[in-house]
Design goal:
- By secondary structure, this protein is α/β, with parallel strands linked by helices.
- The protein has one domain: Response regulator (Rossmann fold), CATH 3.40.50.2300.
- It contains 4 helices and 5 strands.
- β1, α1 and β2 form a beta-alpha-beta unit.
- The two termini are 21 Å apart.
Length: 115
């Protein structure tokens, strides 16, 4: 799913959870911000974007986010279950720029897409 072409690079969304993916898409549309939903992690490094939003609890997400950061130099913003401290620690070590709990992510989403 992609919004119509814009001169601004899109927000890249690598989130398989339909509820969260829909929230991000709706927030992006409401803000008039271009976005692109990525379905396959192997396609991510080739994509240009303002930043990446990724669900760190999905399989392969951490590696995909790091590969994208290395290829693009962009920012990766991840959300994760607040009780999953192992994933949070791994994300910090891997260089994910901003790590939020699912609850925090939901609260800041309208402002986040405008960054």
């Amino acid at each position: 799913m992609t919004e119509p072409a814009s001169s601004d690079p899109p927000i890249l969304i690598f989130v398989r959870d339909l509820m969260f993916s829909t929230r991000i898409v709706e927030a992006s549309r409401a803000a008039g911000v271009p976005f692109k939903v990525i379905r396959k992690p192997e396609a991510l490094p080739a994509e240009a974007g303002r930043f990446l939003i990724v669900d760190l609890n999905q399989e392969g997400a951490m590696d995909a986010a790091v590969a994208w950061k290395n290829a693009s130099g962009g920012r990766a913003i991840g959300f994760v279950s607040h009780v999953d401290t192992e994933v949070i620690d791994r994300a910090k070590l891997a260089g994910v720029d901003r790590i939020l709990s699912r609850g925090q992510f939901t609260q800041v989403l309208p402002n986040l897409v405008r960054e």
